[in-house]
Design brief:
Order of helices and strands: HHHHHHHH
Largest sheet: none
Shape: globular
Distance between the termini: 41 Å
Number of domains: 1
Strand content: under 5%
Helix content: over 70%
Number of strands: 0
Number of helices: 8
Length: 203
């Protein structure tokens, strides 16, 4: 058991180190207005903020924990509903508490993973869809006037799907006892980072 715990600790520290090294200069992807100018920019944008990255990976991790059919329904639900949120942002329809909603998404999804919560499929999809609106709206509001909203939206939807895929692949370790512990540790880390994002949003 001690060896198992050491493996879990190593996994958590490695996960945190990868996140820190990959995203040292950005905590939020949603602070630079007017940067979305093309499909490539849309494709790159979700990777620029740790809050979005962790929440998207968490969707894949939780889906992997829940197994079929959630492992593919959740990663499909999120981009679809996110597109609606992005459309709201593009049309200028206001949505209060964007950054708070994004931070809460990391907290709640992290808790779901940490607790291995076996929510019913429709509840899990509904929860993921609610969070998707905030993430999508944040992306949509960053499109400058005169630029292609369609190309940009296509880019960030595809990038989001890739992040879900990363979460699913990592989540496959759930089939082993040590992997289950490591996955729960990842959930705790994501939830803790969500608390930090929330503190940033309200301060």
């Amino acid at each position: 058991m001690n060896m198992h715990l050491r493996s879990v600790h190593c996994f958590i520290w490695l996960f945190a180190l990868v996140v820190y090294v990959t995203f040292p200069n950005s905590v939020h992807a949603h602070v630079q207005q007017g940067q979305a100018v093309s499909f490539v920019t849309g494709l790159e944008h979700p990777w620029s903020g740790l809050d979005h990255v962790l929440a998207m990976i968490a969707v894949g991790l939780w889906g992997a924990q829940l197994g079929n059919p959630a492992i593919w329904i959740l990663p499909i639900t999120f981009p679809l509903v996110m597109s609606l949120g992005a459309m709201m942002g593009l049309l200028g329809i206001p949505l209060p508490g964007i950054e708070i909603g994004i931070a809460v998404s990391a907290i709640v999804l992290g808790i779901m993973i940490f607790g291995e919560v076996r929510a019913k499929l429709y509840l899990a999809a509904f929860l993921v869809g609610c969070f998707a609106v905030f993430h999508g709206h944040a992306h949509g509001t960053e499109l400058p006037a005169g630029q292609s909203g369609i190309l940009y939206s296509m880019g960030f939807v595809i990038a989001t799907g890739c992040l879900h895929g990363i979460g699913i692949v990592i989540g496959l370790i759930h089939r082993w006892p040590v992997g289950k512990l490591a996955l729960r540790g990842s959930g705790a880390f994501i939830a803790a980072m969500g608390v930090f994002f929330l503190w940033q949003a309200v301060s």
